[in-house]
Design brief:
This protein has about 250 residues and is α+β, with helices and mostly antiparallel strands. About 40% of the residues lie in helices and about 15% in strands. The chain has a 6-stranded antiparallel β-sheet. It has a 3-stranded antiparallel β-sheet with strand order 2-1-9. α1 runs antiparallel to α2. The relative contact order is 0.12.
């Protein structure tokens, strides 16, 4: 039942109880007699009506509470992330012009399809996006490093990850700025700064100037463009990568 109708019915029942008690009880108290019932019966009936009124009002409160809860729980991820200003722009895909010829790692679309999942291909290779709060790393608090999903390139450190409230992984800075290139994205009637991996041209997301200190930057990144490596595995990977360099410098 609609809340306003329930409230009106509860109030009407309360008035019925009040007037029933007033009209019938007065002559009975003064010595008059009712042809239908005595004073005690009228008092009982009026109390029953009053209880019904209280129950109706209580039901109204419960209905309003349930409605509020259901509205919150049934909100779509996009609604839950509807934030005014630049943060709402995270949920839009990109249409930036990326110079693929500069990438060191290159594959044909057919090869990328074999290497990536459909979601990874749509986001990383076609500049798509993913739903907020329903992606792999938005709530990941493990210690480690995030690589590009398209190559062996470390991009972001978990130490620079923060809770932006947008539903996407957010970082204050990349591990190596040279690995994350920026391109102007003028799609959807706005100007944004698209970011992609310089090594493999994978679309990552966008960067905004509303992040926390010390950089003031918010790299809003798609989970589908990332691959997470725990800290111990990363340290071992890094040591293995550094061995040829270390051997060369000792000769």
């Amino acid at each position: 039942m609609h809340g306003s109708k329930l409230l009106a019915r509860g109030f009407a029942v309360f008035l019925d109880a009040f007037f029933l008690n007033f009209i019938f009880a007065l002559p009975l108290k003064s010595g008059g007699k009712s042809p239908q019932c005595d004073y005690f019966s009228i008092k009982m009936i009026s109390r029953i009506f009053a209880i019904l009124a209280i129950l109706s009002i209580a039901a109204l409160a419960q209905t309003q509470m349930n409605t509020s809860t259901n509205s919150t729980s049934s909100a779509t991820p996009a609604q839950a992330c509807k934030i005014d200003g630049p943060k709402s722009a995270c949920g839009l895909p990109s249409n930036a012009v990326i110079d693929m010829a500069k990438a060191k790692v290159q594959h044909s679309d057919a090869e990328w399809h074999k290497l990536l999942t459909p979601t990874q291909f749509r986001v990383a290779r076609e500049q798509g996006t993913e739903p907020p709060f329903h992606n792999e790393y938005w709530d990941n608090h493990a210690d480690g490093v995030y690589f590009s999903v398209c190559s062996d390139t470390p991009l972001f450190d978990s130490k620079d990850k923060f809770e932006s409230g947008t539903g996407w992984p957010s970082f204050t800075k990349p591990i190596e700025p040279a690995f994350v290139e920026e391109t102007t994205d003028s799609s959807f009637g706005m100007t944004r700064t698209e970011v992609h991996c310089s090594v493999d041209s994978a679309h990552l997301g966008h960067v905004f100037d509303d992040g926390p200190a010390p950089t003031g930057k918010r790299y809003c990144i798609n989970s589908a463009s990332l691959h997470f490596m725990p800290r111990k595995e990363y340290d071992a990977w890094l040591a293995k990568k550094d061995k040829p360099l270390a051997a060369a410098t000792t000769k």
